[in-house]
């Protein structure tokens, strides 16, 4: 029996993605956060969950926005996860967000959950770094929406940053080919180089829109953000670039 190592499940509003095509910003979602990640983005806000061996328990926010949690032991069975998702359904849920950590690292469990939750009528929204096109291929046909991060050099996510970016682009291509609504998300910092943004935009041209998301806490000067945006827009087209902020953090919700 497949099991999954989780961090948390909660019902909230999708806080990211802004208004670019394929975004589910402001939609109600049930978030399934997987534990474990192979990357180490310097600014990751989910650091507590990226070493799966340290995530002994997962939590359920029993009532949306209540900060009241129930805890369960890892690993979780798929039946248990489905039951929890159904129990959190507020009737206005747009889609299920699979996030993490990196959900594609647990590809068997991810695939089984996406399949089952689709069968009971939910759309699937995959939040991924896209570094494993071979895993993306396994779930592309089950994916309705995907937000695929392009990891900027300044994230210092891995040593071989350029090859990671190329794999992320390949993942976007696979998802698009399978009919998913896909956008790329680029977290930018003060250190983000204009020449790198130019490169990402060239790779994304004709493929997917770009949501530019300032790293939280925001310290990038607005003049710099404007320059990066302008350059991306010049290459991708003015309708294919937008800003994204982590609005849930301002609302102080999960
Ligand atoms: C925690 S990650 C999990 C999914 C996947 N591992 C990834 O990185 O795309 C979810 C989203 O939060 C974003 N994120 C995490 N920490 C952030 C921060 N400090 N500021 C802005 N965005 C952040 C990531 O870039 C990603 O788009
Ligand atoms: N409300 C809310 N929206 C989100 N969008 C992406 C998130 C994530 O951590 O993947 C996230 C999250 O953690 N909460
Ligand atoms: S890839 Fe995602 S979960 Fe992994 S370290 Fe980076 S932001 Fe965090
Ligand atoms: Mg988050």
Key features?
254 residues; binds iron/sulfur cluster; binds ligand 2KA; alpha/beta; binds magnesium ion; globular; two-stranded antiparallel sheet; 10-stranded mixed sheet; binds S-adenosylmethionine; 31% helix; TIM Barrel; single chain
Spatial gap, N to C terminus: 30 Å
Radius of gyration (CA) equals: 17 Å
The succession of helices and strands, N to C, reads EEEEEEHEHEHEHEHEHEH
Instruction: Output the number of helix runs.
Output: 7
Enumerate the strands of the largest sheet in spatial order, edge to edge or round the barrel: 5-4-2-3-7-8-9-10-11-12
Instruction: Work out the count of structural domains.
Output: 1
Give the name of the CATH superfamily. Answer: Aldolase class I
Major beta sheet summary: 10 strands, mixed
Low-confidence blocks of residues: none
The appropriate CATH architecture is: Alpha-Beta Barrel
Tell me the fraction of residues in β-strands, as a range: 15-25%
Q: Kindly name the structural category.
A: alpha/beta
Mean pLDDT: 98
Write the CATH fold name.
TIM Barrel
Q: What is the CATH class name?
A: Alpha Beta
Number of strands: 12
* Small-molecule binders: S-adenosylmethionine, the ligand Nc1nc2[nH]cc(C(=O)O)c2c(=O)[nH]1, iron/sulfur cluster, magnesium ion
Shape: globular
Please estimate the helix content: 25-40%
Binding site for [4Fe-4S] cluster: 37, 41, 44
InterPro entries: 7-CO-7-deazaguanine_synth-like (IPR024924), Aldolase_TIM (IPR013785), rSAM (IPR007197), rSAM_sf (IPR058240)
Pathway: Purine metabolism; 7-cyano-7-deazaguanine biosynthesis
EC number: 4.3.99.3
């Amino acid at each position: 029996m497949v099991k999954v190592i989780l961090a948390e499940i909660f019902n909230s509003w999708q806080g990211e993605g802004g208004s670019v095509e394929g975004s589910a910003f402001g939609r109600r979602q049930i978030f399934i956060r997987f534990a474990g990640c192979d990357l180490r983005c310097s600014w990751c806000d989910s650091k507590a969950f990226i070493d799966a061996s340290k995530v002994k328990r997962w939590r359920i926010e029993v009532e949306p926005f209540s900060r009241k949690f129930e805890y369960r032991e890892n690993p979780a069975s798929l039946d248990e996860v489905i039951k929890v998702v159904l129990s959190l359904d507020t009737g206005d849920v747009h889609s299920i967000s699979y996030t993490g950590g990196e959900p594609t690292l647990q590809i068997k469990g991810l695939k089984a959950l996406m399949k089952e939750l689709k069968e009971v009528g939910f759309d699937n929204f995959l939040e991924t770094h896209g570094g494993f096109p071979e895993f993306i291929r396994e779930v592309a046909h089950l994916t309705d929406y995907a937000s695929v991060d392009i990891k900027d050099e300044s994230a210092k996510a891995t040593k071989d940053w350029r090859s990671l970016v190329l794999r992320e682009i390949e993942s976007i291509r696979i998802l698009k080919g399978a009919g998913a609504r896909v956008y790329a998300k680029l977290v930018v910092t003060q250190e983000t180089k204009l020449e790198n943004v130019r490169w990402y935009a060239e790779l994304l041209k004709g493929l997917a829109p770009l949501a530019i998301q300032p790293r939280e806490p925001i310290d990038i000067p607005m003049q710099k953000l404007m320059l990066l945006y302008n350059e991306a827009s010049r290459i991708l087209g003015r309708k294919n670039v937008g800003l994204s902020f982590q609005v849930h953090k301002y609302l102080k919700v999960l």
